[in-house]
Every structure is written in structure tokens, then in C-alpha cells.
Amino acid sequence: MNLKQYMFSVGLSLTIAGGALGCGSNSEVPDNGIHETPQYRSTSNGDSNTANTGGEGETQAPANGAVPRATGPVATVNGAPVSADEFNVEVDRLVASGQFPPQLLTHVAPQIVERLVDQKLIDGAISQTNIVVSDQDVDAKLEEVRADFAQAAQEMDGDARTLDDMVTELGISQQELRDSIRQSIAIERLLIAGGMKVPTETQVREFYDQNQEMFQRPEQIRARHILVRVEADADEAAWEQARTRAQAIHQQVTQPGANFEEIARTSSEGPSAPQGGDLGLFPRGRMVAEFEEVAFGLQDGQISEPVRTQFGWHIIQVVEHQAPGTVAFDTIQEQLSRELRNQAIQQSLQGFIESLRADAQVELHNENIQ
Asked: What global pTM score does this model have?
């Protein structure tokens, strides 16, 4: 799983304006068939009492593989419109994410509308309560989300990108992020007020004890590296020139008192250079074979000779080894507690949304999606 897949699988940790609206799936991208689309009324077939089951009410396929665009409200929810802008912003974000081929977005347009309808229903439910989420609550949750994202980025891809980098890529402003976090906190409080039970410390420990197979850790190492990059189409002369540079850097980092981390910051041409070449912890099978073979054969603190891979020449320093074993409960208790809490939210929210749908007056306007 790469970092973008992680981002969508956790729904931005219940932040991106409905990350908690996954309705059984934690994906920001619509599931494209996993969940049945509610049969709201559609005005596009001329019969306001007929469910939207196809025919003239279907979204029209755009020409030449263009992404779908709304030209008017795509739905009304209890009399309030779901605007064309709201729909188009969601489509643009999916395109920007790179997770969905633009030519397939027409097929999931109904699910985008469904998600926006659910958003309106949730907004309405929250507005009828006296729930107040302070700026301090948002700040605390945002720091939690940033920390979780950074940890996942490092563990999954050795990636140094931050949550803020990713939301920028998706075209989400900091204010939108904060608003989404504020709403996710309000949703959780709304569900708790409605009877949702969150896991206790005892229940979290019981889950850990009863699912030991989920907490097995393979052999891992933490390493830093300095990359002298070589382009994929380079000839052997270019490879030799790069090797000469790598050998010079190797001499530098193996001098007594040399600081590998600082030299990596200034000399490495890899994406981990700002982090001093730190690749985080990784098991076998994560890195390319030539890199892995050398790295797992080094002792803590040992520095390799230049190693050739498809990316160029690497100088590797192993920082620590972790033997295979069971992850200790106290090291994952907080993270596991949050994960189980989020699962409880997702399950409770699905039923809550279904109850809102049952009482809602919703009309779809698929004719406004071209």
C-alpha cells in the first residue's frame, strides 16, 4: 500500500468533510458498488414519486472521456440544494488525488451525490444540537492526525511528506481541513450522545490479547542512505562518474567524527535528504533487492560501500535492528485505542445515517450532471 492509498483508506483520519461518512468503508473515494445507493427520488424522469433506478434519470456520460460536471443543483435535501459547485469540487479532488481515472468518474457520480446528500443530513443533525467544538479541540485533534499520518508515511513508504503536503496536493485549504476536523469531532459527540459506546482501556487490552497474530513484527532495520542519482537512460560513463562521486562521499562519511546525517542532508539526491537520509524502519521486501541485501547484512552503525541499484549509487548506514516478535502493548495502546474508536464511529454512523435517510425528503437531479 502506498501513501496515497493510506490517505484514502483512513479517510484522512476522519477529517476530510465526511471522512467519517464512509458508511462502512474508510475510503475517501466512492466504493463503486460496495454499498447500495439509497433510492432517493429523482426529478429527472418527470415522476417525483419514482425512485432513481436508471433510464432517463441516469447521469449522462460526458464526451471524449471528460470528467462529469454539474450545471445545476445535483440534489435537494429537505428543501436545501446540493449545489453544482459542491459536486464539482468533489470531482476535482478525486482527479487531483490520482486515485481515480477521470474517464471512470461518470460511473461513480451517483455515489459522489450520495456522499454529498449524507453530508447535508449530518450537517442538519448537528445544527439541531448544542454541540460546541472549541478551537483547542480542533488543535488537539489536528496534532493527533498529523502524528498518525507522519508515522504511517514513514512506516509505509519511508516518505517524508506531511499531512499538510497531502491536503495541499488534494486542493484542500487549511481552513477546510480544520472545518472537517471540527465536524468529525461534532459527529463523534453526536453519536456518543445517541448511545454509541467507545472501547474502554480494558476492551482495548482484550482485543490485543485475543488477536496476537495481528501484532507480530517481522525483522526490521532502520537505515539512512545517501543517494547519488543516475538517470534511467544513462550510459556506463555516467554510471562511472556517479560512482566516483559516491566513493568521494563514502570517504567523507567514514572519517572519524563524521556525521552521516548532516552529510546526507547536503549530499544526498534522494527524497529523504531533508531528513538526513532517514528511511525509517522497514522489513525485508520493502526495498529493491540490491539495497536490501546489503542493508540487512550491516551491523548497527556500519556504513556500506557504494551500492548500485536502478536509482543510482547508495551509501547505507544501519541505525538499528529490531528482531522479529510481538509488538508490545504499551507501544501501540494509544494507536490501537484510536483505531477501535474509529471503527465504532463508522459502525454507529452508518446506522445513524440510515435513520436520517428514512426521515429525509431527498430529490436527485441527475439531469444536471453532464
From this structure: 0.63
